[in-house]
Amino acid sequence: MSEIIEQVRQFVEEECKKPEAKYDYDIVIYHFRPVLKYAMKLGEIRGADLEILEIAGWLHDIGSIIDGRENHHITGSEIAENKLRELNYPEDKIEKIKHCILSHRGSKGINRESVEAEILAEADSMVHFDTVPGLFRACYCFEGKKSQGEACKSVRNKLFNSYNKLSSEAKEIIRPKFEAAMLLFSEDEWKGDENE
Q: Which of 178, 185, 179 lies closest to 156, judged by CA?
């Protein structure tokens, strides 16, 4: 199955290199690879199916790359299904991967029915602590023109909320980065900006 994983990785990377991609190749370096690092670590701790987890990790945001962010959990699960069928991947495993992709967005409230789905969602949140510059980039480039104070508040809230959704195992892994971020982006740092 390592051949399938390699084909999936290549597919995702090739999509990111296309001129029409909604995100550039940076998403491979600063999002997919760190998500996979955390997913595989948690997968080993919790006895997950690492093959399902790795393939879902590579494909979880493919909908964002090809069609845009809005419903990427839905478009991504459809793209994954088509790609995996093209690779003659087993149908029962395709369904598991689709569920991981469909339920990875915390904001959508979709029940996670497998340990792999839970882990993928957690890894997707954990990566926020490794990519703080990307969170600021989103504030300034994709979420309208935010002031520096608004951006600090937004990033702090995202990190705080991400941490609080994690399992105890995931919190233990990410705790030093969470504590550093809360200190770095303390409310005192951005409060004055809002009142000016």
A: 185
Q: Which two tokens stand for residue 6?
A: 């390699």
Cα distance between residue 95 and residue 53, in whole Å: 12
Integer angstrom CA distances of residue 84 from 37, 77, 124? 22, 10, 21
Per CATH, the number for 1-126 is 1.10.3210.10
Instruction: Encode 48-78: b = buried (16+ Cβ within 10 Å), e = exposed.
Output: bbbbbbbbbbbbbbbbbbbbebeebbebbbb
pLDDT at 178: 96
Q: Where are the domains of the chain?
A: 1-126, 131-196
Question: CA triplet 162, 165, 171: central angle to 5 degrees?
Answer: 85
What region, left, alpha or beta, does residue 42 occupy, with left being phi > 0 and alpha being psi -120 to 50 degrees?
A: alpha
How far lies 151's CA from each of 27, 115, 190, 193, in Å?
A: 21, 33, 9, 10
pLDDT value of position 76 = 93
Mean of the pLDDT values across residues 88-97? Answer: 97
Average pLDDT, the chain: 90
29-84 pLDDT tens trace: 999 999 999 999 999 999 999 999 999 999 999 999 999 888 888 999 999 999 99
